[in-house]
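Bug #77: duplicate submission created two jobs. Keeping one. Sequence:
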Amino acid sequence: MKLTAEQFNEQYSVGSGFIYQSVMTFRDGEAVKTASDAWTMCSGEVVVKLQGKSGCFSVDHLTYTGK
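Kept job's structure:
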């Protein structure tokens, strides 16, 4: 199930740890932390900024690490 920006922000605070997978079918990923609250782009995609990265990233490509 896809999360709305509001649901994502309720579940995960800024600074939460995730594994980011640029291609969702690949098993490997990069450990990252969020740097902003999530928001919904005009396309409907829910995105968030990541620490040390430029741009915004789809929350669908993030797996929570519990940290």
